[in-house]
């Protein structure tokens, strides 16, 4: 576990970071020893280890598992059975995950001790940003956070999302840490009405625009939703600033109290300035224009979030994009030691104190997602090799053992003795017809290549998802695209030639198995892009939020199978385009991945 340190002491924090990335092997061994010795008498471990707590027995006898395997144990705890089914410490709450194509959250056990460790983890990367980006100490952060209404299991065990846990952990004894760095009062951030919270955080940021040194949100997608909200509400925000009076629909007592500290008098000059910028034909660089002293945008921009990089660059006008850390509801894992690295070059350094980490070597052509080979190559953290891809297994203090996280990481180097990883994507097939299997990583790359064709026409890809259509033979891939214009009020009439070329570009970017099935075997039909009306993906998000997802942690699923979600998308289709040509494929490609 991480040693306790003073997060206000930057030198002490950097010292801890250097120590944990140097003594990696020793720390990993001690973490595993602590987890096994603590939890030796749990029902789960007794069933496999019979008191044999050495590393060799752990690796030999404990199976590699997915959520479905441990779900019955978690369900029993949720229904009132004791935590020692899987963990010797009291499980204080269950974390709900987001991002599944069906939108049903998984429930992940968390102890109070591990929550404290995750908060310490967050303090570890703070000095890195200050070290690499000049001027951050001259202002505060306008970071947009949103809580999700918590729920309880049948036995009364709390269910929360991770962002909500962190926000609710702020209390009178540590609130000074929040106040030192955040523009918006904590009371506004924990408002459960997302619209009121978003509006008031924006209003705080605009009223204190000269004091904003950093912008952002937990994920790129959630930050873009804030920009869209600003686009829809800037007239009203200007009116509030001009009159010094808050809109009547803001009724949450904490929001009203929090904003009253800043909205103290009419400020027509500021309202006119904001109105002038927001009224311009293009919103390019709008963030830099509204917050002229901002030094960076901080949000996760790796993995599936990489799709949003062009939009952030458009709105940010050159502000550096900082992807600070890598983690999940199951475990916090790595930190970006080079915050100013290019988005495409971001690597995360594993923090070995956060859990015990193992790695399944990934050979995509032989390993299907969701399937572990009979004799998988599993290596320890210190034994990974540069350039190799691995799927991550985590063993945590809160009762997960050799748990498949589903993320694929590529080793890019080492910091001291700690490996650094590029986040490749999910080890997940998102689309499949016959023998063709398209992984999330490959779909993202293909869509990125195709979206470049939109740029000369001043169009931007705002969001996308996909599905397989088997209603006719042969089946084919369908992509749902929401487009936006670089200019306000421009008509979105996509050129059919351009969109048909986008269809073909996606197909050309997919692997040889897909292209063979499409061109040679004729078992896959032409790829289809359905352009949906503006706001379609907001409705899709609202659908998944209604099923238990979180605004702060919501990620658009890259493939959709749920009937309700598909009904929303289909009802918003404005244009349809098909590939008019077959993608290239040559016989020699039978012996290569391309």
Q: What distinguishing features does this structure have?
A:
single chain, 594 residues, alpha+beta, 8-stranded antiparallel β-sheet, 4-stranded mixed β-sheet, 22 strands, 37% helix, globular
Please give a structural write-up.
The longest helix is centred in the middle third of the chain and has 24 residues, at 220-243. With 594 residues, this protein is an alpha+beta fold. It contains 20 helices and 22 strands. It is 37% helix and 21% strand. The strands form 5 sheets. The protein has an 8-stranded antiparallel beta sheet with strand order 9-10-11-16-15-14-12-13. A 4-stranded mixed beta sheet has the order 2-1-5-4. A 4-stranded parallel beta sheet has the order 3-6-7-8. Helix 1 (10-22) packs across helix 6, helix 11 crosses helix 13 (268-278) and helix 16 (440-451) runs antiparallel to helix 17. A hairpin with a 4-residue loop joins strand 9 (325-327) and strand 10.
Q: Reading side by side through the largest sheet, how are the strands ordered?
A: 9-10-11-16-15-14-12-13
Give the CA-CA distance, first to last residue.
44 Å
Backbone structural class: alpha+beta
> What is the tally of beta strands?
22
Name the poorly predicted regions: 366-370
